[in-house]
Queue: 2 jobs
Job 1
Amino acid sequence: MPALRTITTAAAIHAETSAQRAAGRSIGLVPTMGALHEGHLSLVRRARAECDAVVATIFVNPTQFGPSEDFSRYPRTLEKDLELLAELGCDLVFAPAQDEIYPPGFSTYVEPPAVAALLEGKHRPGHFRGVGTVVLKLFNLISADVAYFGQKDYQQSLVIQHMVRDLNLPIQITICPILRESDGLALSSRNRYLSPTERQQALALSRSLRQAEELVRSGLREARAIAAALRNELAAAGIQRIDYATVADAQTLAELNTLDRPAVALVACHVGTTRLIDNCLLPLP
Amino acid sequence: MPALRTITTAAAIHAETSAQRAAGRSIGLVPTMGALHEGHLSLVRRARAECDAVVATIFVNPTQFGPSEDFSRYPRTLEKDLELLAELGCDLVFAPAQDEIYPPGFSTYVEPPAVAALLEGKHRPGHFRGVGTVVLKLFNLISADVAYFGQKDYQQSLVIQHMVRDLNLPIQITICPILRESDGLALSSRNRYLSPTERQQALALSRSLRQAEELVRSGLREARAIAAALRNELAAAGIQRIDYATVADAQTLAELNTLDRPAVALVACHVGTTRLIDNCLLPLP
C-alpha cells in the first residue's frame, strides 16, 4: 500500500489529480473540515470501495462560519486525521492553508440555489454561500468522478446537488447515511463540545426523529402534528433554544401540511452553547 | 474538412467535447451571443490556429439583460452565423434553447468578483451575475483548454479572468484585440441598430479614445483631465447620455488620479436608443 501523501497547494493537487485522471484512474473525493469521526470515515470507505484513487480534503472553511460562530474554536486534529485516513487507504490529502484557498483579492462567490434560503439559511446567513463556494473550488481543483457527502447535513447535500445540476458540474454526488452512536446521537465533530449532562440532553434530537418515524408508520399524515411532536420531545428534554423542528418536502425543503410526497424531518437546536442538527427521511405513506 | 456540426443539448455537447479531450485533442472555445461579426470571427480564427478543435457557442443569454434592455430585439442570425463558422473551419457549434441552459428550478448563480461592481455593473445591475453564470456553465459543459473573448468588453474580460482565478477554473483565458471599421467604430452586434446619422455620431467613441492616447503620448498624466477630454469629445458630437467616460486601473478598474500604472480608458454612452461601449489601453508613461 503506497503511503498517504499530503498536498497543500492548489497547483499541486490540480496537477496530481489531473495526471491520475488522464491515466484513466477514477477519483473519489471526500471533502471535510477535519476533526474526523466514523461518519467521515464511512465516506472514505465508500470512496475506497468505488474508485481507483481516494482524495480527502481537510480545510476549516472560514466563509461558511458566521461572525458569532465557532470558526476559531472548531476542532483541528490534523495529525490524528492523517493517521485515520492512512489506515483506510486514502491516497491523497489536500490540506491547504487559508490563503491558498482565499488569496488576497479573492471576491467571486457562489450564490447558492433557492433551497439554501430556508432552515439553516435563515439561522446561519451566508453559510451556504461559503459552502457552495468552497465546494465549487474543490471540485474545480480536484477533477473527481464522484464526491461523497453525509446525509447528516441534509440541506447541504441538497444545496450541493442543486448547484451541481444548475452549474452543469461534471461530477456525481453520492450522499451516505448518517452514522450514530449506539444510543442514537448522530456523529458530529461538534459533539466533543458537549458536557456529560449536555450529551444526555442531546439524545432528544435523534429520539424526536425516531418518534416522528413511528408516528408516520402508525398512520399520522399531518405534517404539522409531527413537527409539534418533534418540538415537544426537544422541549421535554429541557432544550430551550430550538432553531427549527420541521417536516419538509425532501427535495425543496418547503414545509408540508400533509405527507403526500417524499418528506424529511429536520431539527436544529442549541444544547448548552453547542448547536446540533439531525434529520431523518420519513417512511412513505 | 469535416462539416460543422450543431449541437443543442447540454448532455450531447458535454459528451462530445469530453470524448475529444480524452482523445488528446486540445479544445478552443468561443462563447458568443451570435449575430456574428468580424470581431467574433477573429476569435474563431485565433482558436483555429491554436487548438485541435474549435467549439463556438451561440446563446442569447437572458440573465445578462436587464428588464428594460434589448433582450427580445437582440439580433438573431443563426443561419448566417453557421455559414460563417463553417467557412472558418469551426468544428462544433453549441446552440441551445433557453430551457436547456435555464431549466425550471434553476437558481444557482455566480456572485461575480469585485471588479463587476463598477462601471457596467452600476449601469447594468445584474449584468455580470448573468455573464459569470452562463460562462461558468459553458466552461463546465465544454471542457476547453482555452476560451477566447474580445477586449471590446473590457470589464467582462476582467470579470471572467478574476472568476477563473477565484474559482480555480482549469481553463486559460485569451483576450483578443478590438476590431474596428476603417473609420474607427468598434465592431458590435448592436451597430446594426444605428441609423446613418447615429452611425456618424457613434464615431465619437473611438475618436475620444484616440485623443486620450494622444494626450498621454504628449505627456499628460492627470487621469481626470484625460477623462474630461473623453467626455468633451462625446458631448461635442451631440451625445447627451454618457453612462461613463473614465480612466481606470487596468486590473481593478479603480478610477485613477495619476497615470502611474497600467491604465485603460473606457466609455459607455447612448447614441439614439443604442447603448455603445468602447475602450483602449493607454500607453505606459
Note: The longest helix of chain B spans residues 127-141.
Job 2
Amino acid sequence: MASRGASSSPVERELVRPGDTENLSEPVIAVDCNGADLGPAEVAAGAVIAAKAGARVMLFGPAQEIGELPTGVEVVDAPVSIAKSADPAAAARATPEASIVKAARAVADGRAQALVCAGGTGAALAAGLFNIKRAHGIYRPALAISLPVPKRPVTLLDVGANAEARREHLVQFAFMGAAFAKTVLGVERPRVGLLSNGEEATRGNALIMETHVELAGTGSGGAFEFVGNVEGGDLLEGVADVIVTDGMTGNIALKLMEGVSRTLLGAVRDAAMSSTRAKLGGALLRPALREVRGELDPEGHGGAYLLGLRSLGVVPHGRFTRRGFAQAILRAQRGASEDLVGRTQIALEQAGALRSRVGGSSSALAASLPQAR
Amino acid sequence: MASRGASSSPVERELVRPGDTENLSEPVIAVDCNGADLGPAEVAAGAVIAAKAGARVMLFGPAQEIGELPTGVEVVDAPVSIAKSADPAAAARATPEASIVKAARAVADGRAQALVCAGGTGAALAAGLFNIKRAHGIYRPALAISLPVPKRPVTLLDVGANAEARREHLVQFAFMGAAFAKTVLGVERPRVGLLSNGEEATRGNALIMETHVELAGTGSGGAFEFVGNVEGGDLLEGVADVIVTDGMTGNIALKLMEGVSRTLLGAVRDAAMSSTRAKLGGALLRPALREVRGELDPEGHGGAYLLGLRSLGVVPHGRFTRRGFAQAILRAQRGASEDLVGRTQIALEQAGALRSRVGGSSSALAASLPQAR
C-alpha cells in the first residue's frame, strides 16, 4: 500500500494503518463534536489530523469554540448538545437542532457517507436509527468494539445496542462483525466465535445453542469461518477474530475487562510505590511498561462501531484525545470507502440471512435504547 | 474470637480466619481426593493441615496412594474417579463406587455434614444433586465464587451451575449468596447487586429488569440490602458484597477476569524481560509484585461454593495445592457449623421466596448440568 509520503507526521503515520490511504479522497465524514471530555476543540484537532491524512470532514459543533480550520474540514455551527441527556432517544427526537441529529441528517441526505459521534453511544444510536435508519433487511443495529488485544485485534459485538437478542439477531451480528473485520481491519477470512460458558456446542443458554446450530449449519457463504463457542477466558487469546454475544453480556464483558485492567495496573503501580527498592525497580521498568500500556491503548482502535445502519457510525470514547478522534474519523472513512455496509448486505443476502419482511418501527426499537453513554 | 493457641503453624494461622475456630469439633467434612492436578496425596496433605486446625475429615480416594494419616482424618478407600469424565452427570449416575458419589452419599446419610470435591464442578454438582439433593424449596443450586478482590471479598453467583435462569432463580440466588457471605465470610449485612449493562433499574434484559423489580419491591426481610444493578466495571470495586447473575453470564465473567489477569500479568512479566534495564527493574520490583499476586491468590478463597443443596459443597480448583484444599475444608466446616443451609432456608421462608410446590426431577435438572469442569 502506498504511504501518503513525506508530508505525514509521526502521529499521522501511526494512525494510518496499511491500506488506510487508498481512495481516501471520496467519502465525507460527518463528525459531532459535542460531548468530548476535553471539549469540541479537541475533536476538531482530531479532525485536522485526519484531514491531513486525507480525510474530508464535516464538523458539527459550536463554531465559536472551534474557530478557523484548514482545508478538508468544513465547520457547521451546531452548538446544541444532547450528549449529557439522561434519555438520548427522547432528546434525539425532540431536538432537531442538536449537533448529533444534524450530523446524522447530513449522512441521511447523502452530504456525508459516515458518522462519527463524540457524544456517546446512546445519542449516536438514537440519532442514527431515526435519521440514517437501519440498512435493508437488518433486524437490529449492533455496537462492535475492537478489543485492545496485543498483536491481533478481536472484534466483540454486540456491546450494548440491544440488551435482549434473538437468534436471528446474533446470526446477523456474525455477518456484520465479519464484514467489519474484513473491510476495516483487513482480516482476510475472519474466524467468528460465539461467547458461551463452554466450548462444546451443547453449552450455553437456549439462545446460544440455537444460534450455534444455525451458524454451524447454514454456512456463511464464505463470509467467515465459524469456530464455535468461545469461553470468557479465550476472549483475549486470539482464537477468533470476531466474537458474537448479546448486548447485555457484551457490555458486562467489555466493562469487566476495563475494570480488571484498571485494578491490576493500579495494583502494580501501588506496588511500585511501596518501598524504596520497589520505587527504584518501578522507575527502571517504566519505559517497558509504557509499551504494555501502549499496546492496550483504546484510542488506537477508534472507539465503538455502530453497525447495521445504512451508513457506518463510529463512537470514539468521550475521554479520547485528538489522536483517538482522528483514528475514529479515518476508520469511518475506511469503512465508507470500502463499502462496509454494501458488503455486509451482499454477504447476508448470499447466506439468506436478511430479514425477509421489513417490519417493526424505529420507535419500538428506540424504546429499548440504552439511556446513557 | 479465640485463637487455637500456640500449636498452630503460620500456614494454619493464615488459613484460619477470625471466627473459623469456633465449634470446629462438630461437623465432619467428606472430601473427594480424586481429580486434583497434583494427585490425591496433595488433597490428603490439605486435609492434614485442616485437621490440625480442628477439622474432622472423611477422605474418599485411593487409600494406597494416600497412606497413613494422623487423627482427625479418616480414609475411605475409593480409587474409582469420574473427575475426567466428559459427561459427569451420566458418570455420577452410573458409577456408585466413584469417590465423589461415595463422598456425597456420606453427606446424604448424615455421616458427614459438608462435601469438598477436588474433581471439578460438573462431578460435584451431579453427585450432589443425585445424592444430597436440593434443599427444601430451592429451585436450582448455584455455584458461587468468592472473587480474589483485594481487601474485601465479592461473592459472584451463579458462575455456571445453570446456563439458563428464571426470575425466581435469581431471587433465590440473592438469598443464597447473602447467607453465604454472612455465615462463611462474616459480612454483617451483605449488600446484594444484580449484574447488568447499566446502573439504572431500566437497564438489562427482561430477566434482569423483572428480577430487579422483585428484589427492590418485596424486600429481603433484613437478610441483605439490595443495592440495585451493578455494571461489569464495578464488579471489583466493592459496591456490593454479593453479585447475582445467571450461570452463563457469571461463567463468562469469571473466566474473562482470569483471562485478563493472566494476559496483563504476562505482559508485565514480558516487559520485565525486554531489556537489561527492565530486567533490573523487574528484579527490584519482584517482592512487591509477589504481594499483589498474593492478594489475588484464589487458593485463599477455597474455591467455588455449591449452594442450594441440603448440605454445603465446596469445589476447590483442581490446580490448587494443599493450602487451597485445606482452606476449602475449613470453609466447608465453617458453613456446616454455622448452619449456612438452615439460615438460608429461614431467610427465604421469611421473605416468602421458597418454592411453594416442590416439583421437577433431579433428572431434568441433570440434563442441563455442565459437562466438564
Note: Residues 1-14, 16-24 of chain A have pLDDT under 50 and may be disordered.
